[in-house]
Amino acid sequence: MKASHKERKVLVDKQEVFLTVGEFVTGRFSLHKEFNEGIPPRKQTKDTTLWSWLKKLEKMGSIDIKTHNKYSVISILHWSDYQGTLTTESQQIDNGLTRESQQNDNKMTTESQQIDTNNNVNNEKNEENEKNGKKPSSPKQVYDEQSVHYQLALRLYQNILANNQDYKKPNLQKWANDVRLMIEQDKRTEEQISYLMDWVQQDSFWKSNILSPSKLREKFDQLVIRVKENIHKQNKSSEKEVPRAYQSLQDWADEDEPERNY
């Protein structure tokens, strides 16, 4: 249903992406958001699992995945073989999808124009400050809702809501910036951050103490130690085979922590 029925261009993060017939744009976090919409956080399927399903389809020869920096283009192989003569109902669906796509493109264009306008206003203010001998202020970074930083911030917020439905919605832009600092300055990986975001809100002690990315960043090394201890305890108390998805996280937790420069 998401695949394009004709050649067209879509706007992704201020960049035009050309799609041919049978192609569509997606990503790990947008896929996670769409697949789990309306599902409680504890019952949601993880983004890594969803992406592994796509990779399996690629190995089976059903799709082709072209990965770019901020998105991926999925091509449904032999797409035309699945298409028969279009009925009136399917034509209506196509028209609806086209209108929705146009609305989304228009919305993204408007948002892009608004950001450009805000940047122009900031530049004018900086020029005026320079004339008056004032130091220009640095513009605040705006994070796209599909960006890794924003999606990880949203992940923690949803996990907190699962334990406390009355938790006040935070400034997700500020949270996204804290996530960026963890990745860029502290050299944490997306997998490490997302794993700890899930783990702390399932722990009886930490779920009430880690209520923001900044706090997670502050206690990161201490939390890794707790994770290692819990994993070793579980391995000793159970002889059952560890699930494959859990093994990859266990491998990460068992790794020696590299030295970091702060």
Question: Your description of this structure?
Answer:
It is a single chain. Helices cover 53% and strands 9% of the residues. By secondary structure, the protein is mainly alpha-helical. Among the domains are: 8-83, Arc Repressor Mutant, subunit A; 148-254, no CATH class. A three-stranded antiparallel beta sheet has the order 3-5-4. The protein has a two-stranded antiparallel sheet with strand order 1-2. A hairpin with a 4-residue loop joins β4 (63-67) and β5. α1 (28-35) packs across α2 (47-59) and α4 (148-163) packs across α5 (172-184). The longest helix is centred in the middle third of the chain and has 44 residues, at 88-131. The chain is globular. The model is unreliable at 242-248 and 256-262 (pLDDT under 50).
Report the end-to-end length measured between terminal Cα atoms: 47 Å
Enumerate the strands of the largest sheet in spatial order, edge to edge or round the barrel: 3-5-4
Q: What helical percentage do the residues reach?
A: 40-55%
Shape: globular
How many separate helices?
9
Radius of gyration: 22 Å
Largest sheet: 3 strands, antiparallel
Strand runs, count: 5
Order of helices and strands: EEEHHEEHHHHHHH
Structural class: mainly alpha
Describe the structure concisely for a colleague.
The chain is mostly helical and 262 residues long. The chain has helices at residues 28-35, 47-59, 88-131, 148-163, 172-184, 190-200, 213-218, 220-237, 244-254, and strands spanning 8-12, 15-19, 23-26, 63-67, 72-76. The radius of gyration is 22 Å and the shape is globular.
